Amino acid sequence: MPRTIAEIVVPLPIEGPFDYAVSPEMAESIAEGQRVYVPFGNRSLVGFVVGFKTQSVSKVLKPISQVLDIIPSLDQNAMTLARDFSCYYGCSLGEAIETILPAALRKKVRWDGGVAAPVPFSLKKQESPRHVVCQEFLDERGWGWLCERIGPALKDGRGVLVLAPEVLQAQKIKLRLEKDFRAEVVLLGRRLPAKTELEVWAKVKSGEKKFVVGTRSAVFSPVQNLGLIVVIEEENRSFKQEQTPFYHARDIVMMRARIEGAQAVFSSCAPSAELMHEARCRDFERISLLPDFQGRMQIIDLSNYRPNRKRILSYPVQTRIQEVLKERGRLLLYYNRLGFYTATRCGGCGEAFRCQRCDIVVPYLFERKSMVCPLCGWTAPLPDVCPQCQGKYLRSWGIGHEKVESECARIFPEARIVRVDKDTNRIPSGGDIVVATQAVWRYLDELNFHTVVVLDFDAELSRPDFRCGQQAFTLLTRLHKSAEHQLIVQTHQPDNYILTAVRDGDSEAFYKKELKLRQESGLPPFRHLVEVTLRGLMEEAVREHIQILYEKLRAGQEPDLEVLAPQPDFHPKLRDQYRFMIMLKTSSLEKAHALIRGVQKAMKRRSRLILTVQVDP
Asked: Would the pTM count as exceeding 0.85?
């Protein structure tokens, strides 16, 4: 086909492709998957060639200004992945391609293809082998099993990609793999400097490097002849991209495995309910290497505990702490709430002190001597008088992790107490009692405790997230391993199915109940949720526009497409922007995305209002 007209997409939330004229000088060198520089409106942008044609509906075509790649940045596998990505998540093809490419190639820079010639792409279709879900901890037994899966792929000359939820963990896995296989392993991720990321990415794309470890974004690394993808801690929320275009690494792994004929191995002590459902439906191989924890868990029923005033440490927990201290053991007290006090209110007018940017009640951190917003980092000193009524009677209440530390110091003055939170940058040495938030998770593989106590299990179940049950189950499973002798859980719900499953070591019972509850409620993995969020600086403008959007979406509602009424987002105000959302429930993402795109085209765009679409938030 004569390459006189190129179909090009741009990294904007705009449907394409757009037709551009190809000059005779470019006709021989331009190819699908290349980056080009094109005029777009009153500016110029980096675009991506996605096809060619001989005729266009437009009579006058703008010419391509410059071809930026000597060798296409995206091969056929990457282009197929970008199209699947765009279709599944409802973003434009240009946004999907930009997400796949490293940061340096999103700009107007020339690229010669790297240090070596790329491996020729084979059109031969490979069938994906049977995927595997392994319930395990990365202890010696679990690590040995994982190496048995990686070894044959490397021996056959296939590429291997290993994904970890955090950078620190990815670095440790890289060092461990290099030691065990005596092979060079490259680390790839968005946190690398842009120049370094591009250099490593180019070596991987050329086929020079075939063994890659990285975090979430490394799922797009162009590993040639890909044979195996390993996902560590698949259930970890870090694998979900929190900025547009929203994606989950698990879904991208399944897309790549299908496209490239690779095997996917998911390793987790508590795989997500979505993965377990897919494993059953698609007949994945399922393996459990979890140890037997039966008899090592105590549930303390707080509904029978009536202290004179609220205490975070029940008498049974205090007794257990005293026993462990006498035995010179070490304890972990898990309490996932920051600060000393969680709220401060005026006793006169009743006004609670809130973040000026996010409008949430902010905790008081004793160590910083200030109130700190956990969402945006806004800080302010605790005022002497109420800003509203100038009253001087200010009352702080609620228990944060600093208050737990203070209470332990009061009750057990002889104990050495350390605290672990998001500001902790190293493993605490020493300490008889460790008071920790969820930040301790990054150290759990290296720390063991005589006893672990979950002080407020009910808080884990009260989060406005349908996945809170999964997250609570993962929490208890991981903490159970860190407790050499006993895991203690304080709760008002001693018969909860999550506690029962962990106590009995019966993960199948948990997944059976969890999936049944989700099916009854029409939640993932049985139906998709598509969240349409609108945000802006003016609350009334956002509220008015979301109502118009809802009415148009409701008009296009189909039997298998339910449009729920608009409501404030989980964070109604975040970083000075007001947020409202509409939730769609459907079994067909194609129908949902088509409806949303049609409504967006029909509506007049409002400046300073930003609309985002997220699948299965």
From this structure: yes
